[in-house]
Amino acid sequence: MSDTSAAPVRRHGNLPQQFLQGSGVLWFIIAAIGQWMFVVYILGAYIPRTLGGSFERWNETGLIDGYVQNDALGNFGFISHVLLAAFVSAAGVIQLLPMIRRRFPTFHRWNGRAYMSVAVFLAVGGIILVWVRGTRMNDWAALGTTLDGVLIVVTAAFTLRHAMARRIDLHRRWAMRLFLVVNGVWFVRVFYMAWAIASGGAGMHRTMDGPTDILVPYLAFLVPLALLEAYQKARESRSSAFKLGVAGLILAGAGVTALGLFGAWMMMWSPNILIFG
Q1: Is pTM, for the whole model, over 0.85?
Q2: Residue 55 and residue 205: Cα distance in Å, rounded?
Q3: 180 with 221: CB under 8 angstroms?
Q4: C-beta of residue 94 within 8 angstroms of C-beta of residue 111
Q5: Which domain range does residue 38 map to?
Q6: Which end of the chain is least crowded, N or C, by CB within 10 Å?
Q7: Tens of pLDDT, residues 112-123
């Protein structure tokens, strides 16, 4: 009788943990869908223009001019950076899927190596594009991109270090941090559009020097990192209130991500895909 009566108590006690885990899974599903949407945008917007030799039409796809006349090396660096970003977006989602990790460990290892290598290459290349070529919206955004690039290199180093030492739990924690900072530019777009829809564009200027324009490049990776750290702490905490509070924050983050993805797809990405736009 005691075992039977205790069972509901244990299930009830697990509810905050389940709610916390469920909020994390929901956010990841939304983010994974958004990553593939970003891949579709990159491939649909840049490959047809590149294969058609209309390199100057790269500049139709965003606020930053990717094509610069008489700068063959810089143009090659830009398009390489963009297309490799599509690989990183796809590989990052695949790398975090537990099913892939369990059933295809060899693929997981090689995909992880490729993912980290390309991510570091893009981080260094992005910093060069920003400061040497001048591919940036403003200096404040460039500083945010640079900080994000440095964090990519650091988190990739720790992720690899713990993997080689077979410290799997620490490896996974750092892999999640790496995933977030690698997607800093993606988060910038998502946050911009979520804020634009929710606030009507408050603090955003056409010259990209408004308060929101300055803050978003930093918040785009600092806020997700803070939420991840809170999530990890909540998983280990015995406080149901803390678990539920963090779960609420994660759900709010999932809502913001979904709203931003809707805006990004409707206003930034799909109009530039040649078969749509």
Answers
A1: yes
A2: 28
A3: yes
A4: yes
A5: 26-251
A6: N
A7: 999 999 999 999
